[in-house]
Amino acid sequence: MVNEGEGKKNAQTHNIRAARQIVDTVKTTLGPMGMDKMLVDGGGNVIVTNDGATILRELDVAHPGGKMIVEVAKMQESLCYDGTTSTVVLAGQLLANSEMLFEKGLHPNVICRGYHEASQVATEYLKELTTEAEPLAVARTAITGKTLETSLDTVSQLCVDAVTAAGNADNVRVLSLPGGSIDDSYLYRGVVLNKDIVGGSKDNFQLSGGNFALLNTGLEIEKNDNNVQVQLDAQTYQSFKDSGKNDLLTLAQEIVSAFRVDTGATGVLFVRDGVAESVSAYLRDKGVQVVQRLPESSMKALSNALGVEVHHRPEGLHANYGLEIRVEKHNDVNYLFVDSSEAADSQESTLILRGATTTTLDEVERGFDDALGVVSLVLNNGGAVYGGGSAYVAMASHLRTRAASIGGRAQMAIEAFADALESISATIAENAGHDPLDTVLAMRHAVLNGSTSMGPDVNNGGITCMSEQGVVEPAELVRQAVLSATEVTNAILRIDDIIGRRPVE
User: Fold this and answer.
1) In angstroms, what CA-CA distances link 465 with 86, 144, 397, 462?
2) C-alpha distance from residue 176 to each of 154, 193, 359 (Å)
3) Residue 169 class from Cβ within 10 Å (0-12 exposed, 13-18 middle, 19+ buried)?
4) Residue ranges of the chain assigned to CATH 1.10.560.10
5) Alpha carbon distances (Å) from 21 to 3, 69, 91, 97, 208
6) How far apart are CA 152 and CA 352, in angstroms?
7) For the chain, what is the total number of helices (H) and then of strands (E)?
8) Separation between Cα atoms, residue 231 and residue 217, nearest integer Å
9) Which CATH number is correct for 190-345, 3.50.7.10, 3.40.50.10230, 3.40.50.2000, 3.40.50.150?
């Protein structure tokens, strides 16, 4: 029979080991020499990537301890766009070190308190390591080791230009168009919609200086009792037109008036929901083209790009002047290019990504997303630290000095936390085929001699100056990685039993 204490220990052990299995899955992807993973679903679809966030999203994780690691990775990505693998690796090493502390008789609460204090001291010291950095260097660092690295200079500059133009990464849309090479990618000042103009082929459509409006609803008849939409056929439309009693027709006439077609003006109406064929035909006949069924995100992007409000009702619609729009066909698909280069205070840009295959483009897009995010972090949150895990090793050295002044068992937890921080550099070195211990020891020695910018030399082994190599990353990314890893570790350590819940009746 297992006693209560032994059962609780087993629960903690199971949680820790389940979490570390997740860690081991993504650990080998860390760093510029990290390996790729091939993800295959039940339908045979394949994703080849070394992006930690993507890998974790695709994993089928059943164990609660493993799920907690996946959730903290998602949180890191949502807050900092990147750094998920570092967060997971750090959490895994904190958990591994806690097992050793268990064997030495430390209670989980003591470990948690020590880890929490260590995270606060480390992140406070991180401020002293923070320096100014060129956004271009940050982008280059984020891209290194990914598919994009073959066009490092081009892609890095594109990322910086995109975020600078849009203000932050959230205002940069990414569109992948198969064909060409990565070097053919470019930044478009405006919004590109994977939509066609209603009413037949518009392959050659182009409008310069047209009127436009954004309508956040639809122009269809809706039966409210069962939410079924009914489109008017041509005959019904004609009868309504002849009688002049149709509400939709009345609205269409108001829209035509708002677009001032009587003066010879033409334009485009962007609509979130559907538009009845009869209405779109009437508008088209009067010189107003329709783009329908646009998602909320596209409506918001158009609003930001063109600097106009979205109308929530067709009544009282006001058309704006100055639309620049054209249709481009790629792989038999029409795309609408809505130009915003002349719009005042436009905050939308689109990165047009080119690549030989869809598989390549998928990985290129993931790399771009990470790079855009870290550039945005540096530009908007300020400050960077040297990469290669050098900031983590410097924080570890500071913690060891601090731990020496702390009595009791908490000192052991803080020292274990410091050891875990060094796992980032150790893993980067190991994934590059070099000795992790020698690398960390050399970095420790450098820190003691006053240099906090030394990191793993992934090409030749040993260590090299991250400043000279231009390897930098946002300080906020490192700070959040430390805090997130600590939070999930402590959450797992505080679980001493797993109890099956009764199904909700």
Assistant:
1) 20, 16, 18, 11
2) 16, 12, 11
3) buried
4) 4-132+385-493
5) 27, 10, 12, 15, 57
6) 16
7) 18, 17
8) 15
9) 3.50.7.10
Tell me the pLDDT of the chain (505 aa) as tens digits: 334 444 455 677 888 888 888 888 889 999 888 888 888 877 777 777 878 778 888 887 878 788 888 888 888 888 888 889 999 999 999 999 999 999 899 999 999 999 999 999 999 999 999 998 888 899 888 888 776 667 788 888 888 888 888 778 888 888 888 888 888 888 898 899 988 888 755 667 888 888 899 999 888 765 444 444 545 555 555 554 444 335 777 888 888 888 887 666 788 999 999 998 888 888 988 889 999 999 998 999 899 888 888 998 888 788 888 888 988 888 788 889 999 887 766 778 888 888 777 777 777 787 788 888 888 888 887 789 999 999 999 999 999 998 877 777 888 999 999 999 999 999 999 999 999 999 999 999 999 999 999 999 999 999 999 999 999 999 999 999 999 999 999 999 988 766 555 555 5
Residues of the chain with CATH 3.50.7.10: 190-345
- Side chain identity at 263, as an amino acid letter? T
Alpha-carbon distance 289 to 323, whole Å? 12
Contact partners, residue 207, CB within 8 Å, separation at least 6: 266, 267, 268, 289, 323, 324, 325, 326
Active site residues per annotation = 51, 84-85, 370
- Phi and psi at 178, nearest 5°, equal -55, 140
What residues are paired with 212 via a beta bridge? 268, 320
Cα–Cα distance for residue pair 161/350, rounded to 1 Å: 11
- Compute the 3-state secondary structure of the chain and give helix, strand, coil in percent, each to the nearest 5: 50, 20, 30
Cα separation, 500 vs 392, in Å, equals 39
Neighbours of 346 (CB within 10 A): 21
Alpha-carbon gap, residue 403 to 118, rounded angstroms: 9
Tokens standing for residue 211: 């009127």
Q: What is the DSSP letter of 319?
A: -
What does CATH list as the number for 4-132+385-493?
1.10.560.10
Q: How many residues does the chain have?
A: 505
